[in-house]
Tetratricopeptide repeat protein 5 OB fold domain-containing protein
Amino acid sequence: MSNNQAKEAEDPMGKATIAVEDLYHIQDTYFPTNPDEKISKLQKESDLALNLLDSVPQEQRKSPLQRATYEYLRGKILDVFPDYRKEAEDHLSKAVKLNPSLADAWLCLGNCIWKKGDLSSAKNCFTLALSKGPNKKILCQLSMLERRMAQGTENEAELVEESIQHAKEAITLDVKDGNSWYNLGNACLTSFFVTGAWDHSKLRQSSKAYQNAEKDDRMKSNPDLYFNCATVNKYLENYERALSGFEAAALKDPGLNATEEVQKVVNLLDKLENMLRGHARSKRLASLSSSLAAVNLNSSYKRATIDLLLGGLNKAVAVVGKVLFFIKHDNVAPLYYLLCDPNQICFILSVYGIHSDTSEGELCLPSAETRYCDLSLAVMNAEGPSWLSIILGFHECMSMRVLEGTFAFLCGSANSFLTTSFSSSGFLLLPPVNAEVMDKIKEGDQLTLLEPYFRHFDFSWKEKHYQFKSIRIDFLEQVLVNGKALSSRQAVRTSIYAQHKP
């Protein structure tokens, strides 16, 4: 214990301050299987903290500064719960009136007002807090709030970029602070979807930020960090890392849906393997691949078969393949296909950012007290789940728990509806979606894949070995279907509109 902490422990107001810090430590690190247990524990500890605060002698809370500190601590204790408490706002408002220079009180007031949905006033509080001096916690909260305020706006990409800049400012104040790195990772992840879910460099930036966050021992208790990092690896198709990350998140917080995410990835890998094994020696391959050698290519590209590709991006190279099957799977983007090349070698094709209509939809989550939301979208009238979208549910944990979901999904004009389920609020019907989205790339089509990104997967998970070859396509300009380019109208458009609570 430092000298300052020792003095605080002897001082009644200091004891209350330490109790408040302990209370928020529970909020950030205690994750029982039953969420009600956490609320009960917070209620018990907040009552104890309030009793300590009330034990401060009247003569030690007479001056405006003393009274401001008292009101601030009381408001912060009452605001530890996920729901909005007017009593907490009233005490915090008194604190900043008594001492306008109390930056922490402005920060807490902004968080409290955020809960009731007054985002503009919350931002004003954070801005006023920053006017008292640079502060990494305030910058992180402002960064998160800006992402929330960007949702549904015409210039959301620009607003998210502002969020990234504030996240970077926080890091410059303390390059070793894991919480600031974590916030930057979430901001980059949001930007990936806002800008079209094509730019994998944004995912790599997010991954790097999360890795830096993990270097801070204080972040090891944050299950959301492991969940979010696993989510990034899932979209980067780093399946082994994704599985390890989701498993670690599940161990740290049984209340997360991380175990379900593990099973979804395993189900996908099993399906890919079964598809490849079932068709690698199919008698159909000879007839299906016979026409591929005659396909004419642009002279700018060198023809190659799957076995000649190098790991990573193959510039100025084209691969011709025949679509054997569209592979349905559970809530893991992108679209997956089984193809064969002219040598009758089967491989997996993953396609990002392509759909069949230009309609844009928005998804609004109702208010929920959960810390997370991972949505699964399926065409209800399809045989089994037909996953049409790039879905992301990710988590934020700062000085307060925050729900932030970013979703990029496909929306069309057919008479099919999507349904989404999430942890606390049952089902939500979304706008109609075109059930023929896969028709633009369907079984029997001949595909020319330009500058393919090649991966050869070879790893084991839980005594099960996976080995397959894969090509990833990020842009519609990289695909020719039966010799024809896809229209720019096929490009997926993204939208963020989710409930985001401090």
